[in-house]
Structure formats: C-alpha cells, structure tokens
Amino acid sequence: MSEKISGIAASAGIAIAKAFVFQNPELTIERKSITDSASEIERFDSALSVSKEELSVIKEKANKELGEDKAAIFAAHLLVLSDPELVDAVKQKIENEKVNAEAAMDDVSSMFINMFESMDNEYMKERAADIRDVSKRVLAHLLNVTFTTPASISEEVVILAEDLTPSDTAQLNRNFVKGFATDIGGRTSHSAIMSRSMEIPAVVGTKTITEKVENGVMVIIDGLDGHVIVNPSEDEIATYEEKQKQYQKQKEEWAKLVNEKTFSSDSVQVELAANIGTPADVKGVLENGAEGVGLYRTEFLYMGRDQLPTEDEQFNAYREVLEKMEGKPVVIRTLDIGGDKELPYLNLPKELNPFLGFRAIRLCLEEQDIFRTQLRALLRASRYGNLKIMFPMIATLGEFREAKGILTEEKEKLVAEGIEVSDSIEVGIMVEIPSTAVMADTFAKEVDFFSIGTNDLIQYTMAADRMNEQVSYLYQPYNPAILRLVKMVIDAAHKEGKWAGMCGEMAGDPIAIPILLGLGLDEFSMSATSVLPARSQILSLSKEKISSHIDQILQMETMEDVVKFAEENF
Ligand SMILES: C=C(OP(=O)(O)O)C(=O)O
Ligand SMILES: [Mg+2]
C-alpha cells in the first residue's frame, strides 16, 4: 500500500526514484580519563586537519558548481575549525581535565551551540548550525566512524533527511540526486532555497519522512503540490510520470518565452524582474528571462563574516551585477539589517521587538559611516549599468529626505574627487510600512519609484509576525485591506508619472498576479524561477477585463471571497 505524506512544496518538479535515507552518523561519545594529554591533542589535531582538507575540497566543488557566494559558507566552516576560541578551548580541556578528545570537542562545541541557539535569532541559529555541522565531521574522524556524505551517492536516488546542512546540499550531484524531502524546514529554509537554485524537486517540512521510509523504498517527490508518495503502485507511478512529462512540456513552453517581453492579451506591457541576494544569482536571472533585477538584497554581503565589507568589496559586487545585467534595470536596496537579519559584529543592543526596532534605514541614518560607505560603492558602480537605488523600511518622508540628502552629499564628494558617477540614477523606496502606503501620494512627489515589499507590509498591516507559524493564518496577501493599500500606492505613483513595482513574494504568486495586473502594477519582481511561469500567465490575461472587476474585489469582505473570485474569473 502506498502512503501519501504532505509537506511544503519547496522546489517545483517531480522526482521518482529509490529512497536514500540520509542519516546522521552514529556518534556515541564515551567520556574517558586520559593520562597522555599530548598524544590526545595530537589525535585532535589530526582529526582537525583531515576535516579541513575535506572541507577545502567541498568548498572548491561548491565554488565551481554553485558560485563563490554559496561556497562562502564553507570558508566560514573552515574558519570555525581554525577559531582559537574553539580549538584552544578543546585543547585546554584535554590538558586540564585529562579527558579524551571526543569528550572535550563535544563539550566545547555543545557549549557554543547552546549559546548561539539560545539567542532567539535566526542568524545566530545558523551559526549554531555551522558549528554543529563542522563538529560532527571532526567527531566522526575522532571516532573512526564513516561520515557518509551525499558526494558518495552513485545511483539515481531521492534523498530523505531530517534536514540537509549547507555542506550536504552543496555536494548533491544532480545526475544522481533526483529530488529530496526533509522532515523540517519551510519555503525559506536554507535547503529549500538551495533546491530552487539547483532546480532539484523538493518537499520540506514533512515532519515524519525519515521515520516512515526505509532505504531503497520507491518514492515519488511531488515538488509541485508538496507531497511525497511512499511505495507507489504501478498506476501511481504512471500517473506521476505523466505529470512529470506535462511539467517538462510546460517548462519547454515557458522556455520559449525567455527572450520575450511581457504583454497581457490586450497588449499592456509590464516588466518581470527577479530578486537576488548575491552576484552569483544573476546567472539564474538571465537564464530565466527576467527583464531586470527588481531587488538586490545587499545585506548578504554583510552577513556570514566578522566585519563590515569594505567600500571596494561592495563596489566590486555591485559592478559585477550591473555589468552582467548589461544595461537592464537593477534595483539595489541599501542595507536592510535588523529584524531577523543580525550582524553580531555591530554589537547592537538586544531588543524586545526587533521587527519594530532599530533596523534598515533607521540604523543607516544613525550609523552613517556604514551608510555612506555603501552609497559611495553604489555611486562608483553606477556607471557600469542601469542602477536604481532603493531605501528599505521608510516610514516617514523625513527619513527619505535625509537618506537622499546623504546620497547627494556623497555624490557631490565623488564628483569633486573626479570620479565618474551616473547622472540618471533613480532613487526610490520600499513601501513596506503602512504609514508610507497611506501617504504614498505625498511620497510620490519626491521619489522616482515605489517597490511594494509585501512580505513586511502584510506583517505590519495585519500585526502578524511573518516568521510565526501560530499567527500565519493572519498572513493574508489577498485580504482586501492589503489590496487597498497596494492600490493606493500604484495610483499615487501613476498620478505623479512614476512607476510602481512589487518585490515581496506576492509579486510571483499566480493568484495575486491577475489582481496586481488589474491594479496597474508596472513591475513584478520575484524569484528567478517564477519569471517564465508568470510571463506565460500574463500573456493570457486581459488587463482591461480584470480592471473592470477591481472595485468589486476591493469591496469584498474577506480574503476567501477574493481568492474564490480570482480563481473563478481570471
Ligand atoms: C521584499 C521584502 O523585503 P525582505 O523580504 O527582504 O524583508 C519585503 O518586505 O517584502
Ligand atoms: Mg522587507
């Protein structure tokens, strides 16, 4: 009998293959007293050096296959293994407490893991995951336990795992690994993001997949609808092979649109852009036919390291993106740190409500050195392409004026230094705070463009934390309250002859797309792999017809009414 297990669709596609249940190595640590601490330290050193060699190989492989930015995580892992705070602490423990290396390593790494995990902050939790990942490798070597890595897989499988660490995902060989499913994680967890950029079908957050499935059992991963079918019947296999074929055909159809512009059936043109986090993501942007970059989240340049990036480092990253985009529009957002994205090296005080606290533009206007360095890097890069600068989390016109004033000052300084700066940089804002949406008519007189950040706009409008599962029912993109705000922003922009885009997840959502088209959105920025499906959808939509229903939609009482109407009519 087959069994259907549901999870979250993390990466589109269908995979049918035998299960490879990826288990963590059995690392049972026995605490032993030792007498010869020198030879124990030697044993620890040699486990460290083998681990470092392995990680260097993985890093090189990731570098080649995934790009320098994704490989950076392994540079961070290598740093952990060279970090005197960890290494010396283990050695001191061996020396002073006369315990074996395994026990010392386990104690010290657990101490760091607990410390970082208790910080209740996603960034620090990831650092804890890094230490866990790295110390497992060292412990396996100390215990002489084989450390299975996905790199050893040499037949077609789908991987089932509790979760996949960054080093696991980077080693996946697409020729053999057809898909994967995990017990934990959500659409934005690390493994889910990696699966999309590698285009491997994936379902995450199944809760029980590794418990329920044994190695070698046939499994179907349905990354389109978020299901895993265990032990499928012949009929089910045939059905999913058909679904796989249809999806493949659909992808081929979409691929034909890669060099096309985006028009509705009644010839209204919109722009489909992609969101990126690093310069390496530009490859996917171009391959998926995006017409620009609608959001470059620069904070990743600042994360996963222990000090601020220099002006030159930033300049190189921005220039690379602008050059690779060859004159297509590139919206680069200034540092949006804070909330769930922390920079430990800034030593900012802990806050009770980080999402309502000292973040993004608020921090940049206060810590002006950081802001000015970034603006200078952006201005210097501006001559290499079509740069638009965007400020995040703008709540008041005063903030925008101050940020723009600083930008103008830096520009004047550079020009005085004889450095060439583009004269046609548009300067716009994210609309992600309700006050700004409500005041959009006023802002529109001064900004060059708006980009609606629905990820935050929804959380602030509905007062529902975007990361909190328990209140996720309130996270309602189609709630008429949100749609009315979106309309206010678009109308305000148009009244002043400006353009309005959207770079929150909603812009790539097939249910939202018709409504946004009808509301007159000019630019839709989404994950690169959503661009072609969105273009194909828009081709068949009549803007005029949808616009004639907009008043009716905005008068609806609930989100459910909106969804029902959209599904039935568009
Ligand atoms: C695009 C957005 O920004 P981020 O997801 O980076 O907060 C948003 O808030 O919608
Ligand atoms: Mg935001």
From TrEMBL:
Family in the record: Belongs to the PEP-utilizing enzyme family.
Chain positions recorded as Mg(2+) binding sites: E432, D456
Domain Phosphotransferase system enzyme I N-terminal: 6-127
Gene Ontology CC terms: cytoplasm
Record field: transmembrane: none
Keywords: Coiled coil, Cytoplasm, Kinase, Magnesium, Metal-binding, Phosphotransferase system, Pyruvate, Sugar transport, Transferase, Transport
Protein known as: Phosphoenolpyruvate-protein phosphotransferase
One of the GO biological process terms: phosphoenolpyruvate-dependent sugar phosphotransferase system
Segments forming domain PEP-utilising enzyme mobile: 154-226
GO molecular function: kinase activity; metal ion binding; phosphoenolpyruvate-protein phosphotransferase activity
Active site annotation, chain numbering: H190, C503
Binding site for phosphoenolpyruvate: R297, R333, N455, D456, R466
Catalytic activity: L-histidyl-[protein] + phosphoenolpyruvate = N(pros)-phospho-L-histidyl-[protein] + pyruvate
Cofactor(s) it depends on: Mg(2+)
Enzyme Commission number(s) of this protein: 2.7.3.9
Coiled-coil parts of chain: 233-260
Positions of the PEP-utilising enzyme C-terminal domain: 251-540
Physiological role: General (non sugar-specific) component of the phosphoenolpyruvate-dependent sugar phosphotransferase system (sugar PTS). This major carbohydrate active-transport system catalyzes the phosphorylation of incoming sugar substrates concomitantly with their translocation across the cell membrane. Enzyme I transfers the phosphoryl group from phosphoenolpyruvate (PEP) to the phosphoryl carrier protein (HPr).
Enzyme class: transferase
Localisation per UniProt entry: Cytoplasm
Classification of source organism: Bacteria, Bacillati, Bacillota, Bacilli, Bacillales
